[in-house]
Amino acid sequence: MFNKERTYYYLLGFLIFIFVAVQLLQPKPLDWTESFSSTDKIPYGGYVIHELLPTVFPNEDITLNTAPLFEYADTSNFNKNWIFINTGFGPDQFETDILLSQVEKGVNVFIAARTFQGAISDSLGIGTTYNNPLLGDGSILDEDTTFVNFTNPNLQKEDGFPFYQSTTQTYFSDIDSSLSATKLGINEAGNTNFLKISYGEGMIFLHSNPTLFTNYFMRYESGAEYASKALSYLPVRTTIWDEYYKTVNRTGGSVVRYVVSQDHLRWAWILSLTGLVLFMIFRAKRKQRIIPEINPPKNSSIEFAKTIGDLYLEKGNHKLIAGKKIQFFFDYIRTNLALDTDTENKQLINDISNRSGIDHSEIEAVFDIIALTSEQDSITPKQLKTLTDRIDHFYKQTQR
User: Fold this and answer.
1) What DSSP state is assigned to residue 339?
2) What is residue 161's predicted lDDT score, i.e. its pLDDT?
3) For residue 46, what is the DSSP state?
4) What are the pLDDT digits (tens) for 285-315?
5) CB-CB contact of 148 with 203 (8 Å)
6) Which structural domain range is residue 380 located in?
7) How many domains would you assign to the chain?
8) Is this model's pTM higher than 0.85 or not?
9) 329 and 261 in a common domain
10) What is the DSSP letter of 176?
11) Cβ-contact 64, 243 below 8 angstroms
């Protein structure tokens, strides 16, 4: 009986080995994901253009951004460029304000995206139009070649720069006439696909065809030339390549995702799992000790909180309780919204509203009752309840 079961185990192990071997040795399918990442060598990755940046900005630092704008440390240096390339670009209102405030003080920004959503679209008054129903499905039609070109005669190519039609048919259809916008490039139909917007002391360059800057086209001389000329509008200085605002964010995710994305680590991972399965099959014992009953530890934190609460109520010091609630409220703002509570109330209220999405008037009401409570030497139970209800309502809204 035992020998018969062992035969089945050997057979199962052999089948697992064959399955793993087939998976490892079969041809790897081509990944058409539009990642635009500097680490990806897939067709729609950004490895080649990232490697080209040192030649476009010689003797300047090329840095990588992997965090949201409000966490980026260097906010005092305005002598720099930002490059964002993705299928779409739509930071929230708070991040948009940070980006535009930097541009206003001298930073230059290059954004290539098919769509501009939310706050950035509203702030700049721009919109794009899709002119090709195939756009966005990852297909490339070899026979459908079209041309794009620059408006600057010094950058133009007589016949234009050839690309596939499915990648060049997005253009800027809505441009706010009140902005200082300059047309820098057009597609074959004469529609604008490249814009410059003067904004304070800096400039914003917008391109509606991000795939023109991917590995697939950069491998051609004409594609590399077009990308270099487009980026040449940025001044030669420190340049930041963004990896955070990507639809496919390769810098984030779990450890397992990173392991399986690397060939050598993926092999090690698969072999380790295979070895673990085989060990469980052939070496694991079929015996198990009786699992003793373990009583869960008693949760004394509730009793402690009740005791402390009873002490406060017994003393009748409602002002002290209110002070603790206010202290915890500001600690919540610092911890969960990453805001400095030492700033002026008016600015702090605006920042909290932008970060949490709560109406400005509701936050202002919380601060009003906090100020009123803090000014008084003692408060009534009704005032304490009003303060508590306001703060609790704020917590619920921020956790939606």
Assistant:
1) -
2) 96
3) -
4) 555 566 777 777 665 555 655 565 566 666 6
5) no
6) 308-398
7) 3
8) no
9) no
10) -
11) yes
